Amino acid sequence: MIEAIAQIGKIVLEKQGEGSVVDQLVENPGYPACMLVAVRVDEEGNVGWEGCEIEECGSDYKKYLFRSGSSRGTNYSPTAKITTIENTYEQKVIGWFRTVNRKMDHPVLRAIEQLLVQKKEAILQELREKLSLSADRSLISLKMNGSYLYDCEPFRDAFLHLVHEKDMELSARDQVCAICGERKDTVIGKLSVFRFYTLDKPGFITGAFPLGAFPGT
User: Fold this and answer.
1) Of 95, 97, 61, 67, nearest to 79 (Cα)?
2) H/E element holding 176?
3) Which is higher by pLDDT, 73 or 193?
């Protein structure tokens, strides 16, 4: 069954094109509202803060480029579910830029990080005011030059870089994939794609070991 699902997925991805790679990785946050920190970047790379706004999320959740990460770390984009606005802004928003700017050299992302740090108190004040007017659970995200993160190349590139980096932590070189049966340069393991799949049950038999499930899981 898993092999058949893999084949169907391959056909769908081929029809949809490269853009669908990001689409497959983005998660639905399931929140009704989003706080947006608007920034503008000019042709010379100068950045400025334009204010904050709140909007209903609607069904087009992909535009926020949300994918959850570690509860104590950052997500795969600076979009996050707000717990307390101060902690979320520092840990999930500024923290994301710090993480990415250690791994990648992108002048725009570095400039935005500096702006968000410099304007932190003013941004937080406006966010608090906006949040006080809404009882809905809310995300926090950014817009750059009026565009959502999904449509901003620097953020898409960073998103894919972080996902790929995480995948490589659970990979092996020159192994046979358990799904397609082919030897590959890199095989990624321990990916829980299906809720019914558990690593301690190869063949869904209780009592086995995770290492037996590694190739291609």
Assistant:
1) 67
2) strand 171-176
3) 73
For the chain, report the end-to-end CA distance as a whole number of angstroms: 14
CA distance 193 to 178: 14
Overall average pLDDT of the 164-193 stretch:
57
- Amino acid at the residue 34: C
User: What are the Cα distances from residue 68, in Å, to 27, 63, 82, 92?
Assistant: 8, 15, 12, 10
**What is the Cα–Cα distance from 102 to 38, expressed in whole angstroms?**
23
Nearest CA to 199 among 216, 176, 177? Answer: 216
Sign (positive or negative) of CA dihedral 116, 117, 118, 122: positive
Q: What is the pLDDT of residues 57-106, one digit of tens each?
A: 989 999 999 999 988 899 999 999 999 999 999 999 999 999 999 999 89
| Residue 66 confidence (pLDDT) | 98
Encoded tokens for 128: 């608090």
Report how far residue 140's alpha carbon sits from residue 34's, in angstroms, rounded to the nearest whole number. 6
